[in-house]
Amino acid sequence: MTKSLELPAKSEISAIVVCFNEEDNIRECLESLKWCNEIVVVDSFSTDRTLEICRRYTDRVFQRPWAGYRDQKSFAHSQATKDWVFLVDADERVTRELRAEIQAALSRFGNRVAAFSVPRLVYYLGRWWWRGGWYPDYDIRLFRRDRARWGGLDPHEKILVDGEIRRLSHPLHHFSYRNIRDHIERINHFTTVSSKELKLQGRRWRWSDNLLRPPFRFFRSYLWKRGFLEGFPGFFVAVTGAVYVFLKYVKLRELELREREQEGRA
Predict the structure, then answer these.
(1) Which residues pair with 181 in a beta bridge?
(2) 133, 151, 174 — which closes off a domain?
């Protein structure tokens, strides 16, 4: 039998943030969440000033060894105590407009829906990326604590919701990369994680993965999503998107070859 979605007249929000060595970002992130009824931070034993900064904003700070994106966020979710949970990454900011829209949406729809998806707007290379395929990038971020669970595979974990989902219109501001070096390092990291997850799923490498998928990603970003209107930065983002896809499948192939070598030695 489906549970009732009836709520008290005023719903309360637990903001959850998962972080590691985010001293450059975490203060502004938490400043933008001060209006929430509770802030829960799960830190993976940062070695910089992240923990010190977090404790200035909340006493609900937990340290936990890194267990993967899905499990870490699921743990943060489990520590929330309010009716609604609002997931925000350390490199994201909640604008006044989004805050007002959330409060209005909960007042109007909070007793009828289970979650809200939020668009994200990236700031990178001196501009906001309305074009190039990064926007609107809708993602479920605000959800009823008792109506959601975690699924998906790292690094593309997702929230699975039992009930209606509505879209909000004002975006989270996302400061995803500090600079080009940080961008490239993250591509290397996330393609390694993605290739391992593909392997765990039983996915096998094919020539078409490296031959066709990267050019399609470039076409989608640069032409279809009009990244060319951003000049050279648009070209750069399209190329790095294609490189991401190329590396993910090259690393899957590498894992397969390594497995064969180990089997040959057995």
Answers:
(1) none
(2) 174
